[in-house]
Amino acid sequence: MSDPVGKFFWYELMTSDPKAAMAFYGDVVGWTFTPFGNAEYDGDAYNVISGSGGPLGGVMAIPEEAKGCGMTPWWGGYVGAADVDADADRLARAGATVMRAPEDIPGVGRFAVMKEPGGAVFMLLKGSSPEGMPPPPAMAPGHVGWHELLSADPEASLAFLQGQFGWGKGDGMDMGEMGTYQLVSMDGATGFDRMQGAVMKAPPGVPVPAWLFYFNVADIDVAKSKIEAGGGTIAHGPMEVPGGAWIIQAADPQGAMFAVVGWRKA
Q1: Which of 44, 91, 105, 266 is deepest in the core (most CB within 10 A)?
Q2: Contact 241, 152 (CB under 8 A)
């Protein structure tokens, strides 16, 4: 089992139409869904997402309280915490903002909602079960292959991730007017083959700073066809990236931003 502390390990879609979103991602990414507790789907269930290597996240309707505050469909990520209350306090003193104070989720664990110094929201979570989750194989279909932070202040975000979570800093790639694409790892590694994501300046088309998660697919061109056929919108790609993989950045039919990464077989 892997230690999730300081790393993303769970990914959650809050959406305006869970049933439609599950049909879309099931086709595009190949996910299966199980209502939490194996209940029958009733529209309000929390639905656990599973990829080829097991559970990785969930889908739920945007809560009425959040909807009233203007929340729109989005993907959020949970970072493992050793002690949610202590970690939320420590991160706040390091420049983060506590968006929702620590509280319990019955049968799941304790969580808090945070905003890092560059403006992107993420969650802290300490599960109630002592059992960890086995890490999926590299590029396992349906799992997250890359984590990209689109930040209002990349330097502050990078310093925060390194100082508070122990993330490693890899090479930086010059993107001209868009600044530096700074590679990072969640396990403190610095070698190129150990990178798990990047920090960059949020492009002009991104309305607010956010984490963009790249889901692994077997064939990037098949994924493109399915995104378009399912009512999604492609913002960028397919584009080849270092290492020979290809990426697509897109929005699902409800408007949540996501990305896919995979190989071109043609």
Answers
A1: 91
A2: no
CATH of region 8-127: 3.10.180.10
Q: Is residue 220 within 8 Å of 246, Cβ to Cβ?
A: yes
Q: 144-262: what fold?
A: 2,3-Dihydroxybiphenyl 1,2-Dioxygenase; domain 1 (3.10.180)
- What is the structure's pLDDT at 219? 97
Instruction: List pLDDT tens digits, range 111-129.
Output: 999 999 999 999 999 988 7
Contact between 225 and 239 under an 8 Å Cβ cutoff? The reply is: no
**Could you give the CA distance from residue 37 to residue 45 in angstroms, rounded to a whole number?**
9
Question: For residues 90 and 120, what is the distance between their CA atoms, to the nearest angstrom?
Answer: 17
Tens digit of pLDDT for each residue in 78-99?
999 999 999 999 999 999 999 9
Q: What is the pTM of this model?
A: 0.94
Q: Which residues contact 252 (CB under 8 A, 6 or more apart)?
A: 15, 21, 24, 25, 73, 232, 258
